[in-house]
Every structure is written in C-alpha cells, then in structure tokens.
Amino acid sequence: MQEKKYKLVGDPVIEIVNGEQVETYHIMALSTFKNLATNEIIKEGDLGGRISKESLSQDGTCWISEDSVFLSTDENVRIMDNAYINSSEISGNVFVSGNAIINDSVLSNVRENYMEISENARIVSSTLTGNVKVTNKAEIGYSFVGGQVIIDGQSTLEKCKVKNISVKPDDFITIRMFGEKLEDYTIHDKEINGKDLIVNAPQK
C-alpha cells in the first residue's frame, strides 16, 4: 500500500458550495517532495490549503498552498498529477491535472460538466466560471473567461473577456493559437452564432 502524501489536520471549516454545507480541512505534508510543475519543495510538516474531503490526490506531486481553498461536493479527486494551486479559490465541478499551475485566481463551476485545467496550462490573476477548458500550453492572465470556452494550443490571453452563456453541450467558443496573443480583447457568444470560433491570428 502506497504511503500517503498528506493528512487532514485541524478543526473543520464549513463552506457553502451550491447551497450545500461542505467541511474543509487544512492539509499537512507527511513527507518532503518537489512539485514538478513549479520545482517548489514541499517539506514534511508543511501546511497546505483547505480542501473538501480528500479532493487532492495522494499520488503525484500535486499540491495546494496554505492560502488556497478547493471546494467540491463530489467525492471524486479533483486535483491530481503535478498540478499546483497557489493563493486561489476553486469551487464546484473543477478538475485540475497535468502540470497545470493556478495562481491568484478564482475558479467556479456550478454546471454539471467539469471545468478542466490540464496539461501545461497557466492561470494567473484571472476569474473562470462555467465548464471552461484550458489545456496544452495555454496561458491566461488578468482575464475573465466564462461559460463553455476552450483555450488550447499555445494561446496567451491577457486582460481579455471571453464569455459564452450557451447551455447547449457542444456549443463551445474555441480559441486555439500558436505564437499569438490576445490582449484587451472581448469575445461574446453572440459572435459565434452557435459555432466554435477558432482564432489563429486574432485581429482587433
């Protein structure tokens, strides 16, 4: 049986997620290891953030910093692999994996389908809501992304607003760029007319 990476410590803190009361606990590292996404060393005895249930995987080098909160009403693991969450608040149906890094951001999803932050995605000082998917080497900074949106490729978004209020399962806005950057840019679902918007060389 594999040894555990962390344990839950302290008295529970009650949070409200989607109208439900959720108990959260701080985590404490049970061994010393290096997070492979950030190369940060987590030492045995270090306190981490607050999580609901055991929503941080005991496998891999994933970690959540002491000033972060991860809230979920689902019993399934939501943070795994080498993902790292720092100074952020995440709630609802959110799945973070790969070498993803989330810093100083707020992520929330009350939709049934998951929000997915995966591979080498980077989220900095941003707000994401809904079943957004950020993958590959995409980076989002100082931006708002809401609804059914896919950010893929090597896309870089800075000070952007991308919003899709559609609830149709396949009605996504898709932004996929390689070597380009969106800056001070707004995309709204009315512009896509029910179809994906694939941006390779954005123009204002």
Secondary-structure blueprint of this entry?
Elements: E1 6-17, E2 20-29, E3 33-34, E4 41-42, E5 47-52, E6 63-64, E7 69-71, E8 84-86, E9 89-92, E10 94-96, E11 101-103, E12 106-109, E13 115-117, E14 122-124, E15 127-129, E16 133-134, E17 139-141, E18 144-147, E19 149-153, E20 156-158, E21 161-164, E22 173-177, E23 181-183, E24 186-188
Parallel strand pairs: 5-7, 6-8, 7-9, 8-11, 9-12, 10-13, 11-14, 12-15, 13-16, 14-17, 15-18, 16-19, 17-20, 18-21, 19-22, 20-23, 21-24
Antiparallel strand pairs: 1-2, 2-5, 3-4
Short summary:
The protein is mostly beta strands and 204 residues long. 0% of the residues lie in helices and 47% in strands.
What does this protein look like?
The protein is globular and about 45 Å long. The chain is mainly β and 204 residues long. The chain is 0% helix and 47% strand. The N and C termini lie far apart (55 Å). It folds into 2 domains: 1-100, no CATH class; 105-204, UDP N-Acetylglucosamine Acyltransferase, domain 1, CATH 2.160.10. The protein has a 10-stranded mixed β-sheet with strand order 1-2-5-7-9-12-15-18-21-24, with no helix packed on it.
